[in-house]
Amino acid sequence: MAEIKKVWVVTDPTEVSEMVDILFEADFKRLANYIRGSSSGDWEAENTKIYDDKASATADAKKRMEHRDERKKTALAWKK
After folding, report:
1. 30: part of which helix (H) or strand (E)?
2. What angle do CA 22, 39, 60 make, to 5 degrees?
3. Tens digits of per-residue pLDDT, 9-24?
4. Domain limits, the chain
5. pLDDT digits over 24-47, tens only?
6. DSSP 47
7. Are 48 and 6 within 8 A, CB to CB?
8. Residue 56 and residue 25: Cα distance in Å, rounded?
């Protein structure tokens, strides 16, 4: 098995997030800093996932953005 030197991190988007906000590459030092910098419960609340390949991480991030956008459209439709 090959050594994993970097990972891709994906989190849930906020209402104003862009792809760069929810998908990023990290070596283990950056990942450790990200985890340490999170307040208690943030990691779980953000639904953070870690991938060892960019394609899978990107696919997950796109799905999350699409889901967020669908929720926005539904909310706007209810306001009309």
Report:
1. helix 28-37
2. 20
3. 999 999 999 999 999 9
4. 6-79
5. 999 999 988 888 887 777 777 889
6. T
7. no
8. 12
CB neighbours (10 Å) of residue 19? 14
Q: How far are the Cα atoms of 31, 37, 43, 80 from residue 59, in angstroms, in the given order? A: 20, 26, 20, 32
Beta bridge partners of 10: 23, 49
Residue 51 CA to residue 70 CA, distance in Å, equals 25
pTM for the whole thing?
0.83
- Tally: H helices and E strands in the chain: 4, 3
Residue burial 49-75, b: 16+ Cβ < 10 Å; e: rest: bebeeeeebeebbeebbeebeeeeeee
HSE of 76 in the Cβ direction (CA atoms, 13 Å)?
Answer: 7
